[in-house]
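Lab notebook page, bench 4
Experiment: in silico fold of construct C2
Operator: M.H.
Input chain length: 207 residues
Purpose: comparison with the prior construct
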Amino acid sequence: MIEHIETERLTLRRMTPPDRTLFVCLYGDPEVMEVRKVGVLDTRRAERQFEVMLAHWRTSGFGYWVVEDKATHRFLGECGLLWTDDGQEVKLSYGYMPEVWGRGVAFEAASAVLKVGFDDIGLDTIVAYSRGDNLASHRVLEKCGMRRVWFRERGAHGLVNYTMDAADLGSGRSSGVGRVHGVFDQAVGAAFAKPGPAHAAFLQNPV
């Protein structure tokens, strides 16, 4: 499995139990979560979400990476690949602290994660879901080369679906490049099973 990814400015590493406090703060930040579909999570729900994300790594061999500033090691947010609740698709998902918005961090991390998903994990297709009014996230996904498929009325803001195929990565649709460090375990790859019981409680994480 790929536990460590480096880009020009960022380090992405596999989330681990000591990261709990970072994620509880992220999920409880009103400014961060107001544009995410689940909304602000209290401590109990945030901790539960964190445990589900740890289980995703154990059962699937991939999940959220912690995104850090390469130079300072400061926590910036999360970016990763997750099974959808129905186990039929793998989606790109991310969220960042407000102080790094508008600096290209979301695009830099997402493009590297997509490359790992296609080149190292061997996925054929990766999707993404975003709130209908989250235009900043829509721009990130489109810059990565993802194609908008549909918009659906859902709640007060609507829901948008994007998709990208492995063939798109080499077609010039995406300009993102990430340097990947790690060894992908083919046994884990073969066992990229559909989500197990732990995923039944998975709270949908938007981009």
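Observations: The chain has one domain: 4-189. Helices lie at 20-27, 30-33, 43-60, 105-119, 135-143, 166-169, 186-190.
Next step: discuss at group meeting.
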